[in-house]
Amino acid sequence: MTLIGLDDTDSRERGMCTTYLAARLAEAVVDSGGTVERTLLVRLNPAVEHKTRGNAALAIHTDVDPDRALELAVAELEPLAELDDPRTSPGVVVADDAPDAVPPAVADFTRRAIRDFLDTEDALSRIEESGYRHRGWDGGRGRIGALAAVGAWAALDEWTHEHIAYRAFERCGTPRDVDGASVFEAAERFYPEVWDTVDSVEGQAVCVPNAPGPILYGVRGDDANAVVDLAERIESEPVERSATFLTNQGTDVHLREGTIDDLREGRAYRVDGTVAGDPETRRGGHVFFALRGRERPAAGIDCVAFEPTKRFRDCVRALRAGDELTVCGEVSDGTLKLEKFAVRSLRRTEEANPTCPQCGRSMASAGRDQGYRCRDCGTTAADPATVTLDRDLEPGWYEVPPCARRHIAKPLIRGGFDAPVHPER
Ligand code: ATP
């Protein structure tokens, strides 16, 4: 079988889209007499700086001859890729391998591309060692993603689906004409097999992107037929073409297990800790709290729920010092950007000034380590009172809403979590 990997063809301003190129290339493969077994949309490390938007790379699995595959890819890419944009650095990699039998070093490259940082040299040496064909333009950094896409079928075992409808190219840049009511109705009908189509609280059709480019809408879910069926119910401007991708979106495959003292910049983690202080809302509406290690309380990291995470911030604000959590998110600028968290245990009580047993008034501190004293009658008490806290959270997982979800992050509704879930929809 022949595996064609593609990446880095679009520009932030003009907005081509590598998925569109892959859809066209898949059609060109079929027109040339070949068959396409599947097309993968692989999300790589979301912390990579030079990504255009979602750090996606694409792979087409086909039966065309590898030399012909490279010719077809070059012929599709050259007229469409944004080669004039200095930040666009396209790459194509063609492998003559069974998708699940690429060399282990290539599958390992994919896993590292999702969780770590690589450079073009790393990619080129793996490509050469594996005897793969390749082409790069303007530095060809896209060969990192292209090789990662080639290794993805062997490297990953969890796949979801996205059905993307594309606009006529000449309409790109104009407002998208999609009937919101039809999106909401269809989303309701196919939930929870199809998720993140809308954000029902924000009233937003999240399947319709805001960025420039040819995507009209993209429907994501666990079932390949359901994403297509839902898309067919959306009323909109003409759909020029559409394609269904297998993808690692919604799988949390970017997260690695960590402990608070080994967190590194640009990586994303699942990490346990204890809330060190009550959360604080700072300028811009971002909510911060400090998390300390369970084993090593001296180690800690600030966690943040940014303003665009909307109602998720209320869950974060409801945390209290002493709550035990598992948090998930990417570390950047020394702060963990929360995608979801699990409450493992809630602090249910807090200390308060005791009530005077003689006169019933509230006692005051008598000084550091000196207990309490009643200002009215002079009665003393050694220990504080314990009062019960009213808590608005329950044990289990909380997540950002669909409008703030990263492509690769797993929605709670998909299941498989180790505690009860509180899904957003
Ligand atoms: P689009 O999906 O809309 O085409 P994008 O957001 O995927 O855009 P790209 O333009 O493809 O972004 O840019 C991402 C670049 O980063 C590519 O050149 C890719 O090869 C490279 N890249 C991907 N993963 C890594 C990684 N882990 N380390 C270093 N570079 C990476």
Question: How would the blueprint of this fold be written?
Answer:
Elements: E1 2-7, H1 18-31, E2 36-43, E3 56-62, H2 66-80, E4 91-96, H3 104-115, H4 120-129, E5 133-136, H5 142-155, E6 160-166, H6 180-190, E7 194-195, E8 215-221, H7 224-232, E9 241-247, E10 255-258, E11 268-275, E12 280-281, E13 287-292, E14 300-305, H8 312-317, E15 324-332, E16 335-345, E17 349-352, E18 364-365, E19 372-373, E20 380-381, E21 385-388, E22 396-399, E23 421-422
Parallel strand pairs: 2-9, 10-11, 14-16, 22-23
Antiparallel strand pairs: 1-3, 1-4, 2-3, 4-5, 6-8, 6-9, 7-8, 11-13, 11-15, 12-13, 13-14, 15-16, 16-22, 17-21, 18-19, 19-20
This protein binds adenosine-5'-triphosphate.
Adenosine-5'-triphosphate binds next to helix 5.
CATH architecture descriptor text of the largest domain: 2-Layer Sandwich
| Top-tier CATH class of the largest domain | Alpha Beta
Note the total helix count.
8
The radius of gyration over CA amounts to: 26 Å
Runs in which pLDDT lies below 50 for 5 or more consecutive residues are none
* Biggest sheet character: 9 strands, mixed
Q: Helix- and strand-based class? A: alpha+beta
Bound molecules: adenosine-5'-triphosphate
Q: What is the percentage of strand-forming residues?
A: 25-35%
* Biggest sheet: strand arrangement: 5-4-1-3-2-9-6-8-7
How many strands? 23
CATH level-3 fold name of the largest domain: Alpha-Beta Plaits
Mean pLDDT rating: 95
**Structural domain count:** 4
Name the shape in a single word.
elongated
Distance between the termini: 40 Å
Helical proportion, percent range: 10-25%
